[in-house]
TrEMBL record:
Domain of life where this protein originates: Bacteria
Protein family per UniProt: Belongs to the UPF0125 (RnfH) family.
UniProt-listed HAMAP family: UPF0125_RnfH
SUPFAM superfamilies: MoaD/ThiS
Name of this chain's protein: UPF0125 protein GCM10022279_12620
Organism: Comamonas faecalis
A Pfam family hit: Ub-RnfH
Length: 108
């Protein structure tokens, strides 16, 4: 595997959700030593994260805006959860009733 030069640009992917159920991805090339904030600025999303309405992570792990990026990183911009996932799952189970209880439906 060939080593990349130190001055090679960073190829990263920026993913964010414009609305529930829809995710957009943007491939970016940034200079070495770039941060999450610079990636957001390149995509025009820096104001949304600065307001605290959105949070950032790299490969699913929360990071600060000044976190440095590495080649191949996936920066994810996420919203706060509106409903606790456990509460939502219980509500779905209550709505579907006992008729389709999953794998153990026929087991007694």
């Amino acid at each position: 595997m060939a080593e990349t030069p130190v001055s090679a640009p960073l190829d990263i992917v920026l993913a964010w959700s414009t609305e529930p159920g829809r995710v957009r991805e943007l491939a970016l090339q940034l200079p070495p030593g770039a941060t999450v904030a610079q990636a957001l600025a390149a995509a025009g999303l820096q104001q949304a994260c600065a307001d605290g309405a959105l949070h950032c992570g790299i490969w699913g792990r929360a990071v600060a805006l000044d976190a440095p990026l590495q080649r191949g990183d996936r920066v994810e911009v996420v919203r706060d959860l509106r409903v606790d996932p456990k509460v939502a799952r219980r509500a779905r189970f209550d709505a579907q009733g006992k008729r389709a209880a999953g794998l153990f439906e026929h087991r007694r």
